[in-house]
UniProtKB/TrEMBL annotation:
Nuclease is among the record's keywords: no
Keywords, ordered alphabetically: Oxidoreductase
Leader sequence residues: none
Provenance organism: Thalassobaculum fulvum
Pfam families linked to this entry: Fer2_4
GO molecular function term, any single one: oxidoreductase activity
Protein name: 2Fe-2S iron-sulfur cluster binding domain-containing protein
Length: 99
């Protein structure tokens, strides 16, 4: 996976559920950042190529991070702040193998 990591000073103080698995997060960081820091960069699969899709811009312009968050479909994970207890569903048909 990528070399993205949280700084040592970041206080992991929240847990979210992503595709049925608990993921440690920092309250207030974006959901996309929490997933990337947890090694889950693939958020969807291209219907055309079958390749994993990942967030591209992280500023809300590309829609590469669309997820279902707390039952709301098509939410841009890069713009949604983490709240402990959130339930996130990516558009991956199977669990990531690259962790």
């Amino acid at each position: 996976m990528s070399g993205f990591r949280r700084s040592r000073e970041a206080l992991v103080d929240a847990t979210i559920t992503v595709d049925g698995e608990p993921v440690a997060a920092v309250e207030g960081e974006s959901v996309a950042s929490a997933l990337i820091a947890a090694g889950r960069a693939g958020f969807a699969v291209s219907g055309k190529t079958g390749h994993r899709l990942a967030p591209y811009c992280l500023i809300g312009a590309c829609f590469g991070c669309l997820c279902e968050i707390d039952g709301r479909p098509q939410v841009q994970a890069c713009l949604e702040p983490v709240r402990s207890g959130m339930v996130v569903r990516t558009r991956n048909p199977e669990p990531p193998h690259d962790r």
